[in-house]
């Protein structure tokens, strides 16, 4: 009994030393994050909020950084066509585009995650094929959330600060260019409208 417990503890230490983590236990450097989506009550954003909170992130509206799910596309295409058996393979693709927004609504980062799966649609078993398609979509959504967490895991507070500084510098440069363009326009004499003498 003691040997078995020691073996389990030893394996757990060994696995954690090589970077293995159980699914859904991603350690994030970001401790505060606001999360929103076009579909505010959609399954993806709901699961993402839950996964972030499980990972120790305080998800609230006043957080300094915002994760916005800007677009989610779901596409289905036939991978193989059916013959006499009326079964065919379909490829499902889910693409989720997201953005990280910082202070003053400055865009810090834009990217996307994509998941593809193939499932078999049996024309002789429409109910079973529909249930399989639903199950595949749920698995794909979980994979989407996991991939988003992995992307967020790569963002440290130092990296976010660097992205914020770059965004602030871009905003300052754009504001300076607008001021300069306005100054040049104000300094350029405007031609007065042509007056036609009355008879």
Set out the fold topology:
Layout: H1 2-17, E1 32-37, H2 43-54, E2 58-59, E3 66-80, E4 87-101, E5 107-122, H3 126-153, H4 157-187
Parallel strand pairs: 1-2, 1-3
Antiparallel strand pairs: 3-4, 4-5
Helix pairs in contact: 2-3
Task: Tell me briefly what this model is.
The protein is α/β, with parallel strands linked by helices. It has helices at 2-17, 43-54, 126-153, 157-187; strands at 32-37, 58-59, 66-80, 87-101, 107-122.
Please describe what this structure looks like.
- The chain has one domain (27-178): Lipoprotein like domain (Double Stranded RNA Binding Domain, 2-Layer Sandwich), CATH 3.30.160.150.
- With 199 residues, the chain is of the alpha/beta class.
- It is flat.
- Helix 2 (43-54) crosses helix 3.
- It contains 4 helices and 5 strands, in the order H-E-H-E-E-E-E-H-H.
- It has a 5-stranded mixed β-sheet.
- The longest helix has 31 residues, at 157-187.
- Mean pLDDT is 80; it is low at 19-24.
- Helices cover 44% and strands 27% of the residues.
Descriptive keywords:
single chain, 199 residues, alpha/beta, Double Stranded RNA Binding Domain, 5-stranded mixed beta sheet, 4 helices, flat
CATH architecture: 2-Layer Sandwich
Unreliable spans are: 19-24
Tally the structural domains: 1
Largest beta sheet: strand ordering: 2-1-3-4-5
Characterize the overall form: flat
